[in-house]
# Entry
Amino acid sequence: MTGPARHAARLAALGVGLFALAVALPGVAVADHQGSGCGFPVTETDATGTEVTVEEPAEDVVVLDASSAQVFWEIGAQDRVVGMPVEDFTAYLEGSTEKTDVTDGQQVLVERVVELEPDLVLAPNYLGEETMTQLRGAGLTVYQLPLEDSFEAIYRKTALYGHVVGECEAANDTVAETRAEVEELREAVAGRDRPRVLYFFFGFAAGDGTFINDLVETAGGRNVAAEAGVDGYVELSKEVVAERDPEWIVAPSHAGLPEGEPFESTTAFERNQTLVVDENLVSQAGPRVVVPLRTMAETFHPEAFESNGTGTPTPSPAPGDAGPGFGALAALVALVATVILARR
# Structure
């Protein structure tokens, strides 16, 4: 498959093919899996409104999207994954090619999933109702995630996955490390002028209600699509691009930068202020999204970072922020960031 059809299939597999799902489903209960408790059974209401109960730590898990697989690798529970998408967008996960491939690149292979006899199947929000019905009809325990629209959603997912496999401590450590790095970067760019940013791929933009929006804002940018009233991932008209005139245009590497007008007349192109980020890390709602977040923050606000002699960027005070106690806080944040980067 080539051309737009190939791109569309990849978007779905990467977890950003949520074009019909502009906002998270209402009424989805989210339990607090962070903290000292890691008891069983654990019951969680999923995106379909179904109460899913896991009686004991799941030993064999099938994950149907790349971002879920990433979480298991991050919490050190990749040995629990018996099936997953084995594609170029998961190849960066060491040992992933040894897992059973449960997709054909576009669709879930239901029979193959059933043959694995997993204790639990984790499905992305965009998985179709028919496939969900087939999996549950085969007697499998299936949990479908709600739409991931923020860093907080990533934290909740990570904690939940750790809980269902009995690895709460590792999951909570991952959440704490990820949150600390996100907040370090948020603090570094706080109080600075926020450039107009457009995140654009294959004619679509990421608007409000997406974790990409949270990414852009946390990195110190203003999401022009969200400001234009865009919700979710939708096609963005050229008129909106011209009217909003982004100062930065960001694109995932598999899409590349847009060409022609009105893009080439934007401030972003005129000032050569464009950025291409790793497609896997930015498109998958998992802990490693902090990598493109750091890239974006340092690109939008290079003046906010300076070298501390170890190769680790250290946030510098925003204008007017110098005052009693600020230097000690910045030093503490820098130390936390150094520890986090050493462990990742």
About this structure: The radius of gyration is 21 Å. Residues 162 and 171 are 5 Å apart (CA to CA). Residues 1-31, 308-344 have pLDDT under 50 and may be disordered. The first strand starts at residue 42 and ends at 45.
